Amino acid sequence: MKQKPFTFLYSLLVLIVLNGTAIAQQTRLSGTLTDADTKTPLSGASILIKDQLTGTTADAAGQFTLTTNRRGPWTLVVTMVGYERQLVSVANAGQPIAVSLKVSTQVLQDVVVAASRVEENILKAPVSIEKMDNRAIRETPSATFYEGINNLKGVDMVTSGLTYKQINTRGFASTGNTRFLQLIDGIDNQPAGFGFSVGNMFGLSDLDVESVELVPGSASALYGPTAFNGALLMHSKDPFQFQGLSAQAKVGVNHVNDPNTGAALYHDYALRYAKAFNNKLAFKLNVAYMKGLDWFATDYTDVDATTPAEQKGRNNPAYNGLNVYGDEVNRTITGIGKVARTGYEERYLTDYNVYSLKLNGALHYRITPNLEAIYSYSYSKGTANYTGSNRFSVNGFSLLQHRIELRGANFFVRGYTNQEDSHDSFNSRSLGQQVGRTWVRDLNGAVVPANQADEMWFTRYTAAFQGKVQGVTTADHTAARRFADQGRYLPGSAEFDREKARLKKIQGLNGAGILSQTKMYHVDAQYNFSSALEAAGLSKTEVLAGGNFRQFSLFTNGTLFDDKGGRILYNEFGAFVQASQRLLADKLKLTVSGRYDKNQNFAGYFTPRASLVFSPTEAHNFRASFQTGFRNPTPSDQFIKLNVGPITILGGAPANSAGMNVYENSINSPSVGGFVNGFLADVQAGKTPQQAVMNNKDKLQKLNVAYIKPEKVQSFEVGYRGLINNRLAVDANYYFGEYQNFILNQVVIRPDNPVLGSDGKINPAAAQDILNTKYQVFQLYTNATDRVTAQGATLGLTYYVPGGFTIGGNGTWSAFNLKGANPNNIPAFNTPKYKTNVTVGNRNLAKNLGFNVAWHWQDSFDWVGSFNDLRPGKIQAYHLLDAQVTYRVPSLKTALKMGASNLTNQYVVQAYGSPAVGGLYYISLTFDQGMR
Q1: Torsions phi, psi of 108, nearest 5?
Q2: Which CATH number characterizes residue 16's domain?
Q3: Quick check: is 837 in a domain?
Q4: What is the mean pLDDT of the chain?
Q5: What percent of the chain lies above the pLDDT cut of 70?
Q6: H-helix segments, 623-735
């Protein structure tokens, strides 16, 4: 059996832990933290021993206890959001430690790691970066911390359902964003078969998230190919620092005044327990469960592409409703026109009762005060409704993750695996089509096999319309449809439910079920040489290096990939180096980095980045950067091989089409029409078929379609971040990017014979293949040769008002320029030109009482996606108002929170074909860090 890529790493860590040093004599340090002005206890403050991993947090009474095996004296580093950082010297363990922290208006004096992979002040980050700290997460007015990310500037959030929200930055948004990286404690939480993260469905619970950092724009130079448009880094709570029992119960209601259904209950429960032993061994356990009634997709707009606008609607014989499935099957009947089958509305096909279950735990062992071994396990399972090329019910889908890590003060080595299982997932559109093939009768009233159902339905329709059926009105579309639909299973009937249940279990083209059991194995490491350089007298120089190896193991049992004979395996690796130098008395910092990545199916790519930050004072910081990025095609882009009858969808990896002679021997599909029309005209004029072929064959156009390759971007960014008069925080940013090699689909015709003859011209035999239907149609994955540009600007302002009020606002402008590119070759920008957020809050409006309000508005724009065959659908301008009020009971370590997402209950559509989303009103009770 082949050894997994990180098996050696796992064995190494086990040996290190088993052979770790014995627990040394422990010393206990205890104390109390209070607000210097109000003298009230400070809950949640962080206390670390300087230059060690050892640390803890203060409980609800402001008290803390930590143990160490290092001899005194000690220096404690005490930090809390909104307060000045303080160093406290402790001479002996018996000394009472009382720390009073002063309120700081310089809230932006916060530490981030996402921008450079090393700790740095957020003011001096080389690129635009956003952060939600622990307090912001607790006080978000949104129903979950993940929804609260939408209030950060530059963020686009698209809601496909109650359990599935997708975020993006810098344009080209989608409901399945393959251009954006999402990490949890360094783990890529995407199901590898999807090629993108499913929101926070397989992520953290609100109780266990410590902070969130967002990097808008390409971060490939440090994080690799997936961080093409940005990266989101989520950090969970360390069990050494955040100990005790925490529990949360949240109950709410949605679907208020929803015309599709009555109001429905929403439940969200979470439990976390963490415990440390002698500052040597710690563990944590998390359980989270949410369930509710999803939003209904009920847009029945007629989107048939060939019907004039004034003729569209339910009475259109070719009616194709956006959220109606089965009516995509159509025929153009001589003398009648275009006719579509009768479909089923989505609400009768999918399951809107959704849930999310998250189970995870971690074991931390400190081998030495500066060397820690970690093992973590995560299992998530849930149901969501997702809008992609179709509407999918991700039903009971699970993601299993194992992580092992060895972490020191200057390095880490990490290995993890992601294992997905689609379980009962299905395609709602395919389900509607397949149910429609189970009941069709022939002209004698006998039910025909499914593979004959569509043709027979149109035969019945034609006979009825032409007056060949007794008792049916001639030339009446309504009557013809009624006759063709005789025996149709109605939604809610026993027959309909029986066939729906049966077809959901059939995976592949004959049913609606989806099978994916893809795995991903990943190993990465990083080392910071700064300490060694400082010891060598180079204290102003920082050098960081790292690399990773990743293996994909694809398996769909032939339902999506050509993998009936076994799993498809492929590898990729990358390595980076970053160097920084501080100059001009530390007022100027220059940083350069470069990364090389190689996927076994593509050429290697080098992605450099350079930045400078000029800080004339601590409060004013100017930045500029040049960045490059790239994105590898997803597993589906590379290896899909799906014969759907009239067309075969074929991924662009060379090995995927080996021996098929498709990319090399294809005809441009639009040129076929000109050839056929010319041939028919010549035959009607009296020419022989052979003469007609020779006269018109050169109207066919041969294609040399390129195999798929990674997308690329180059961008330039300038910005300023600072604090004015210790009251007004400002963050301004402008970026300009140029994109190339966009991944797209191209439809081609492959004849049985070579397209070109020995003379280099169109082969008459290939032209004859077109007339004799001796050809196959393919949808190929390839790249556009066009270059396009995107630019934008963001401005964020936060004002700290005396009395504890914080008023914030941010705005984003985004623009896309096709230049001279073919608009059919460019994926959708899907981004409003303008959007803005305004927040107002005060955590101490009265004793133990706080509130927060967030208002979001965005402009209208055209959404283009594969669900509607890349035809634009208008997303109207909308606004959302979130609000919460929190009352804290410190003596009980409890907080009561009442709030609402979309308080005004505006039903808004955020992606064309997705449901209209209304308000969610909730009340939660949170008990935090008891039993410490």
Answers
A1: -75, -5
A2: 2.60.40.1120
A3: no
A4: 91
A5: 96
A6: 635-639, 669-684, 689-696
